Amino acid sequence: MKGISTSFPAPHKTPKTPPFNAHTEPCLFLPLRRTHLSTTRRRTHLSTTRRRLRHRRRQWARRISKQSSPNASLSSSTSRNSNSRAGQASLAKLLEVVIELSVEFRVTLPDGKVKEGKRWETTPFNMASAISKSLASNALIASVDGVLWDMIRPLEGDCELKLFTFESDEGRDTFWHSSAHILGQSLEMEYGCKLCIGPCTTRGEGFYYDGFYGELSLNEDHFKRIDDRASRAVSEKQPFERIEVSREQALEMFSENQFKVEIIKDLPEDKTITVYRCGPLVDLCRGPHIPNTSFVKAFRCLKASSAYWRGDKDRESLQRVYGISFPDLKKLKEYIHFLEEAKKYDHRVLGGKQELFFFHPLSPGSAFFLPHGARIYNKLMEFIKGQYRVRGYQEVLSPNIYNMNLWETSGHAANYKENMFVFEIEKQEFGLKPMNCPGHCLIFDHRVRSYRELPLRMADFGVLHRNEASGALTGLTRVRRFQQDDAHIFCRESQVKDEVMGVLEFIRYVYDIFGFTFELKLSTRPEKFLGDLETWEKAEAALTVALNDSGKLWQLNEGDGAFYGPKIDISVSDALNRKFQCATLQLDFQLPSRFNLSYSAEDEAKRERPVMIHRAILGSVERMLAILLEHYKGKWPFWLSPRQAIVCTVSEKSEAYAVQVHDQIHAAGYYVDIDTSDKTVNKKVREAQLAQYNYILVVGEKDAEKRVVTVRIRDKQDHSEMTVDDLLKCFKELVEGYH
């Protein structure tokens, strides 16, 4: 749904439509001419021209839709041929085809029940209606033999049918994709922009539409007007109509929009092109969509930001409008409340308050970690490194800069170069590494390997750089410089299942400690891929077996694998029930082949190719730190906290003892501070609570005499006396239990 694809088979061939003739078409193409008009008149002229072009596009879409109708074809064929013997024969053949098409077929439902329907007549909506009225009114999209399908699109033959509501990923993504068309309609009608792309967001939280507005800059003042236009579209119950067009027709329909023209020209020659008509909007889109706009009961514009066409900073500057929608108003109100809560715990805000990190315009996309932020950063890496020792990983260090020949061999130069920092040294092209895998292939290949060494688990916290567009940089969640708990497992094919299951258990262990729940998806071969189909099928089958044996439910995510191999995507849900992509597990048969890696088998004369597994648990440490900061709402658990304890004096008389307590705790390896200022003890305690110290240790004269401290825990009102030795035992238990 994100890009323009055309994988759906045509129910019937679209009749060829003659090209537009500017002298005979009812709506003429009016070329823009440079004139000496005032700015206001020029804008009015431009707006009028665009309206006429949009009107012309809608007229053509209606005409193509009528001409592509089977009934229209049958009617015209009948009138032409019924008066001649040849025509009667032709009509007889046509009737035979119609009878054949109307033959009943079988539809298998998820519960195994089988229902009958008629080809080119029965739709998923008909099937839903036959099951229950509730399902018919809530089903948004269907899946026909694994292919997403419009609810009102006729079925073509025997098939397996699934129906999805808003509660499913498929239903929700389709709902928000269709809402993006409603947003696009509002933007085009209100501001005459040139629409670019309008998908649902990758994080599954709404949708956006990119558009080119010329000199106009959108902000929140424009949102009510956009929302009102969207409400009109919803109230009109506009159907989403799928129309197939030829490449020539599509280019002519969108001739005034250079962005759509570029998309059309990039499509493969053999692909069917579809447009969707929704009210006054005719948009280039592969679909599918919800039945009509009335399903969108609640709609809201959220924000506007800048973007670049196709994410290229050297291309046109666009404006991106984000929106959210739901099938009922209650869900929208809940979501707006959720956003207000999330703003309070934005990692960029909390990171500033807690003095963890900052960014500077002289190094955009690269965070400066302050001492307290570095404590958390290092603790996360130490945590994973401790698990490496237990789980049989070996750490390596690899270079940051490589000659581009390495990336040519790996395939990244062809598939990823635009995301790399590339520069010249002594007339040779080099690049900062965006990932560790090619370097690890060189490490594996630097000497002869034996089957006895496998599986070889190679881990690397090396610094990575990726050339993200400046408009895409977002705090710690989208940066240019980062580290990740990257590891690559070189193993035999027979070891793949056990290694994958081991990684999945590693992920479960870490995420349980963080308090995350997670979901698994198997992402299969994408449209652009390296290698042969047989190898891909073998890799996908291996991951399928491991997932089935893991005992955890998983979903299929077709066509979203990496270009070098299938992968298991792991999305985590935090305390605010937001989903994030952190861990990854990818199977790779391609890189070992491209680097000609091998090991000696039991028969030393025989060389075999290893399988490579890419895996990360935290993913980017920067991104994980941001997610955890928001997940814990700034209240770090003791084991991970950069401010574990603070000693607060009641008066100068207890200061010497307070220093002893501080030094003893510090020597035990904990992060402890001391406040010996002349503030009142209540003020000291309050400031310590706001600074999110886990333990506040108050020391007065009586405490010094008894050699104890008065212990107060961050979010509790009660307090108790403890000796320092007992306190340190408590701290040790908290750290060992990851509390």
Question: What is the compact description of this entry?
Answer:
This protein has 739 residues and is of the alpha+beta class. 38% of the residues lie in helices and 23% in strands. The strands form eight sheets. Strands 15, 19, 20, 21, 22, 23, 24, 25 and 28 form a nine-stranded mixed β-sheet that branches.
Q: What key attributes describe this structure?
A:
single chain; 739 residues; alpha+beta; nine-stranded mixed β-sheet; five-stranded mixed β-sheet; 23 helices; disordered N terminus
Low-confidence stretches: 1-46, 70-82
The biggest beta sheet is recorded as:
9 strands, mixed
Question: How would the global form be characterised?
Answer: globular
Please report the total strand number as a whole number. 33
| Average of per-residue pLDDT values | 86
**Beta content:** 15-25%
Return the structural class: alpha+beta
Number of helices: 23
Give the terminus-to-terminus CA distance.
42 Å
Cα gyration radius (Å): 31 Å
Share of residues in helices: 25-40%
Describe the 3D structure:
The chain is an alpha+beta fold and 739 residues long. The protein is 38% helix and 23% strand. The chain contains 23 helices and 33 strands. The strands form eight sheets. Strands 15, 19, 20, 21, 22, 23, 24, 25 and 28 form a nine-stranded mixed β-sheet that branches. Helix 2 runs antiparallel to helix 3 and helix 6 (169-191) packs across helix 7 (223-235). The two termini are 42 Å apart. The model is unreliable at 1-46 and 70-82 (pLDDT under 50).
